[in-house]
């Protein structure tokens, strides 16, 4: 049986929205520290290559992963053990890549969480121990060293006729497994200007941030300290007599209302539709048809009579039914997002129908927003 279709639907909207959709919350003021960050104050990625030992026969096959064998030989040479020319067959060692994020202002001796990922054909890293591994940044300098027991959430089990794998047993974590050995040169400008970088660049948001900071500094220090330079940057001039850290902490708690562009984000795979607060639809009439076709195959066997020397054959029997559901016309009014959501919730359009309607309205020029399809 094959079923095609969806539902015939006619609706008049002056702004409506979708079934099963809910309004998360109205746009409200947020802290400046949640929408902007000081330029240069960011995390940095670290990476290193190492060996995990102590595996219970689930490590790399040295014939299939020759780099594991080379690393094992080099490590043994450094420890004074000569294994050159030996035919190594151990399955208790795995070559891994180690990654970590170095936060800003991380002091020497502070601890970091690290992620360990297998490079070869190891079946699992469960029970393994990461040996001392150096972690370098993009500049080639060593910023941390890592070592510790690998914690793996997944598992893998295999028998002669069946295997079972849950999660990803070839990736694990070592909580607090790395120690910072080199500090980043993160310094806030005590004398010169500082810059705030917006996480979502926008002209209106940058102006609102500068206005909020200037209103605060004028009331507190009798001077204006902010100037919007671009949609993603606001320049700050610290008032005299105030530390940079103290000043950033003060303005970070100020409240602003960020502005967002009118945008509709559509994920056709999951049927997810996200609509911005400022999305507007001009009055349009929309009809979505739904035709259901059922094809049923009931083959019959034709048996010849006795002594007729005939052949048994299968004769196809096909039945096709087509139905088209009637749709009621609903009037949806209002130019707000809340009215749009309420209207389509009452009609009962499914997510896939919403996506098709929005795309058609956009093509007609009535949707005053950008559609982003993922």
Automatic annotation (TrEMBL):
<dbReference type="GO" id="GO:0005198">
    <property type="term" value="F:structural molecule activity"/>
</dbReference>
<dbReference type="GO" id="GO:0030288">
    <property type="term" value="C:outer membrane-bounded periplasmic space"/>
</dbReference>
<dbReference type="GO" id="GO:0009428">
    <property type="term" value="C:bacterial-type flagellum basal body, distal rod, P ring"/>
</dbReference>
<dbReference type="InterPro" id="IPR001782">
    <property type="entry name" value="Flag_FlgI"/>
</dbReference>
<keyword id="KW-0732">Signal</keyword>
<keyword id="KW-0966">Cell projection</keyword>
<comment type="subunit">
    <text>The basal body constitutes a major portion of the flagellar organelle and consists of four rings (L,P,S, and M) mounted on a central rod.</text>
</comment>
<comment type="similarity">
    <text>Belongs to the FlgI family.</text>
</comment>
<dbReference type="Pfam" id="PF02119">
    <property type="entry name" value="FlgI"/>
</dbReference>
<dbReference type="GO" id="GO:0071973">
    <property type="term" value="P:bacterial-type flagellum-dependent cell motility"/>
</dbReference>
<comment type="function">
    <text>Assembles around the rod to form the L-ring and probably protects the motor/basal body from shearing forces during rotation.</text>
</comment>
<protein>
    <recommendedName>
        <fullName>Flagellar P-ring protein</fullName>
    </recommendedName>
</protein>
<keyword id="KW-0975">Bacterial flagellum</keyword>
<keyword id="KW-0574">Periplasm</keyword>
<feature type="signal peptide">
    <location>
        <begin position="1"/>
        <end position="28"/>
    </location>
</feature>
<keyword id="KW-0969">Cilium</keyword>
<keyword id="KW-0282">Flagellum</keyword>
């Amino acid at each position: 049986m094959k079923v095609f279709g969806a539902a015939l639907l006619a609706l008049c909207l002056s702004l409506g929205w979708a079934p099963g959709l809910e309004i998360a919350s109205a746009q409200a003021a947020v802290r400046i520290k949640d929408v902007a960050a000081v330029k240069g104050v960011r995390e940095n990625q670290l990476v290193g290559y190492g060996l995990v030992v102590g595996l219970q026969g689930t490590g790399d096959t040295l014939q299939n992963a020759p780099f594991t064998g080379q690393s094992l030989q080099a490590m043994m040479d450094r420890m004074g053990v000569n294994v050159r020319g030996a035919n190594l067959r151990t399955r208790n060692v795995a070559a891994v890549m180690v990654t970590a994020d170095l936060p800003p202002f991380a002091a020497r001796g502070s601890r970091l969480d690290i992620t360990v990922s297998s490079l070869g054909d190891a079946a699992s890293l469960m029970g393994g121990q990461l040996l001392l591994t150096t972690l370098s940044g993009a500049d080639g300098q060593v910023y941390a060293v890592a070592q510790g027991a690998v914690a793996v959430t997944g598992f893998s089990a295999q028998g002669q006729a069946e295997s079972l794998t849950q999660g990803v047993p070839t990736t694990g974590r070592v909580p607090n497994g790395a120690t910072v050995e080199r500090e980043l040169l993160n310094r806030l400008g005590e004398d010169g200007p500082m810059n705030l970088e917006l996480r979502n660049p926008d002209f209106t948001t940058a102006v609102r941030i500068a206005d909020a900071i200037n209103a605060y500094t004028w009331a507190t220090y009798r001077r204006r300290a902010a100037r919007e330079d671009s949609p993603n940057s606001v320049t700050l001039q610290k008032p005299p007599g105030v530390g940079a850290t103290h000043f950033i902490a003060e303005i970070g708690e100020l409240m602003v209302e960020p502005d967002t562009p009118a945008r509709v984000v559509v994920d056709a795979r999951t049927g997810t539709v996200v609509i911005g607060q400022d999305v507007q639809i001009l009055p349009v009439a929309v009809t979505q048809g739904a035709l259901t076709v059922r094809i049923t195959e009931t083959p019959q066997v034709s048996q010849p009579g006795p002594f007729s020397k005939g052949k048994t054959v299968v004769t196809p029997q096909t039945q096709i039914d087509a139905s088209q559901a009637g749709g009621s016309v609903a009037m949806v009014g209002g130019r707000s997002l809340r009215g749009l959501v309420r209207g389509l919730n009452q009609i009962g359009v499914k997510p896939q129908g919403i996506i098709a309607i929005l795309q058609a309205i956009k093509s007609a020029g009535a949707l005053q927003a950008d559609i982003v399809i993922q």
